[in-house]
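Hi P.,

Sorry for the delay on this. The queue was packed all week, but I finally got your sequence through. Input first:
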Amino acid sequence: MHLCLGMRPSASPAEFDPDDLAFAAQLGVEHAQIRTEGLITRERGNVLHADDLERIAEQFDAAGIALAVALLPQGRGSQYWHARLGRPEREQEAEDVCETLRVIGSFGVPVVEWTWSVPDVFGGTRAQGRAGAGVRRFDYDAVKDPGPVEPDEAMDADTMWEHLLWFLRRIVPAAEEAGVRLALHPHDPPTPWLRGEARIIGSIEGLQRLFEEVPSPVNGLNFCQGTIAEMGADVVAAIRWFGERDRINHVHFRNVKGAVPRFDECFIDDGDTDMLAAMRAYHEVGYRYAMMPDHTPALAGDTPYGHRGRAFALGYMRALMDAVG
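Then the structure:
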């Protein structure tokens, strides 16, 4: 497994701050996740352009950091927004994603992370964690009655499954051809319903069905430990189930307190999951891809990027990796 850090662009979507790259390298990070929402826009053809990725790769190569994960655009109006809603435009959007996968694969990036939701991460509020650190809090009672929702954005489970499986079956052959593995992030928060949407991949059973329906070896999971814990699931048992079947293609190594309907995000060492047991489980199932901190608390005096919070999480992760060999 590889210690990884999600990196943010600076002046432009294809430019990264040399100090951020040095920060990662100094902490022993040799693999990175990059986001593509600023690179893939409808004004630029709705695909990732090779010259943009080449410019990014050159910067990371110079810092001694490999590109391990590329995250496709998220949110309203982004690359495959219409596909989520089952609109006719999904045909072209699927082609756009396939072309993007081919570009990513041509640079040797092994994993492409993606999401599938209309409201995405919704309903959290800011709260105080240990010693006043800023964290995200979720209370389903505060958001379960969302008010008016656009008619085609309210979808039952059958409709959600039809849209998701149609899209996945269209892009999997391109991923296979490009030599990239897909890492789908579970619904966060993993509530049964959110803003009229059935959260079909907000449970262990939903994620298991996803791989039964599309059994390609490239079809896998971004195993977000925080989200799995928010489901009320046994995180270590879930690592073993998905890991033994080689369905974990990326990991968000984080911790939470509580589970749906109410939970708080927290420091990596301050939640309900035994993180040493989790790391040991990844090691024992032979997990071999990237593992990164995610949603780190906001520490006193930190930067907008969260350098202090990320450094704490990375150091803790490195120690656990060493502990399990």
